[in-house]
Every structure is written in C-alpha cells, then in structure tokens.
Amino acid sequence: MEIWINPACSKCRSALTLLDAEGADYTVRRYLDDVPTEDEIRDVLDRLGLEPWDITRTQETVAKELGLKEWARDAGSRERWITALAEHPKLIQRPIITADDGTAVVARTEEAVRDALSRES
Prior knowledge:
GO molecular function, one term: arsenate reductase (glutaredoxin) activity
CATH class: Alpha Beta
CATH superfamily: Glutaredoxin
Protein name: Arsenate reductase
Organism: Streptomyces regalis
Structural class: alpha+beta
Family: Belongs to the ArsC family.
Keywords: Oxidoreductase
CATH topology: Glutaredoxin
Number of helices: 5
C-alpha cells in the first residue's frame, strides 16, 4: 500500500500513526515533492471511483486564483481538472491510500484508514 501525504497535514500524521499502530506495510509518498503525473492521478481517480473535482481542495489559495469553483464539473472538463491537480499538487486532497487490491481511499478519518487496511491481503 502507498499513502500520499503532506507531512504538515494533521490528518496525514494521524493516518500514519494508525498505520504504524496496526503494523501495516506501506510506502510514503510526499506528493508535494514527488508530484504525481496526470496518468497517476487518473489511475488514483479510477481506483477511488471519484472525479478530479471530488479530490480537489477548493479552499486553497491557488484554487481561488484559478477560479476552480466556477469550472464545469463534467466529462468535457475532466482533463482540465487533472492537469490542474498535476500542476498544483497542493490541490490534491490528502491523505490518499492506494491498497494492494487495486482500490484507494481518501483517508481523512480513522474509519477510512481502517477500510484501506481491511483491503490488504
């Protein structure tokens, strides 16, 4: 399993603490330093079963500068959103855990982290 984190994020630190407490085998990806490609974002979205606007932090300063709240949220705009997430990784909701079973979760709660742990073989 891999977890995308921002070390400054309290939700990320809580998720890591829980993973450690459960003895989970995971890899940390500091996605602000190791920025996901557009293809990696598409893959994570597929694994999450979500659209890019569902994992976008619209309150970030850059989101306001880009005017994201006014962007269309439809199939025709999907690639524009993905490009924005790749160019501005701070916009990506965190933490995201990709499980070995091919699924992923946005792990902002203890329940979501435990859900990801339950998907491990």
